[in-house]
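Workshop exercise sheet. Pairs work together: one partner reads the sequence aloud, the other fills in the structure field after running the prediction. Swap roles for the next sheet.
Pair: D.N. / O.F.
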Amino acid sequence: MDPLTHTLAGASLAQTRFGRVRLGTATCVIGANLPDIDAATYFLGSDVALGFRRGWTHGVLAMAVLPPLLAWAMHLVDRFRCAQTPTATPVPVVRLLGLSYLALLTHPALDWLNTYGIRLLMPFDGRWFYGDSLFIVDPWVWLMLGTIVVLAHSASRILAAGWIALGAIATALVTGVPGVPFGLRVFWCLGLAMVAGLRVWGGLQPRLQRVATSGLVLAGIYVLAMVGSSQLVRLEVERWARDRGLEANQIMVGPTPADPFRRSVVMADDQHYHRLAFDWLASERVQLDGGVTTIGDDHPAAGAALSAPALWGLATWTRFPSYTIEALPDGYRVGVTDIRFGRAVVELDRDLNPR
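Structure field:
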């Protein structure tokens, strides 16, 4: 998920009774974003980043090691601050440790939900896991978690101005995305107006812990509904394929921006990728959308290209690779495209060795 979603998740957790300790908000927000330290690999190149992202820092080993490190660092900061006030007592490190584990675990849980994938078992197993349920930017999660954080952190004019600016940017994104139904755009604007009204009223501020718990539960129900919906879509697509004599080897049920009722589906058989559109509100729910793409992996140059060192990251990450092979006088030019997004080109000699 996007950094804003992770930050809102951590900040919302900090408003529950678990996070109401000194440095609780900092621990939750840092912890909710900490696995994304692997984003630093983008400075080494996009292919290297593809190979490292959603791996080591998102796997089971990191989930065991990073929380104690975070708790220890927060405890040192807390001890330093308490040293300036003789009557202050440091927060027990065990309390910070538990909070660190809660905050960090929200990160892989959210990242699993989209189509990019996550390697939950790293470094012991590089297998990818895909939730195929939420778009990488989900405004409805923003709205539910953002309500909690706005109510908790908008006391000053500067903070209020910042939230207004962020709301305006988010509204421009939601209403500016092509294909978002008019009704959902209106619903988003009404949701923002509700948040503003609750903040002006101020009646929920004394009950922030209960509001935070309710908001997180509501967001959890929405996520579970999207996960269940994706599974139902998968079953309908399998039935659609069988009715047409197709055997679905893989199915990706991709969510669409801001619209929980539609899905962008990729179905793979032995030789082709089929792009489909699914709409819960349509009379014919499954429809072709974008045609059919030949996989093109039946030529030896395809496998050789994906094994090239220059494509290590793409080969590690790719889920639906397709190949276009152009014969050259002294070899081949191979284009490798993942149906989701991403493309690379590599040239091979006659012996299928990368140049």
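Discussion prompt: Strands lie at 250-256, 259-268, 272-279, 286-294, 321-328, 331-338, 343-349. What would you look at next?
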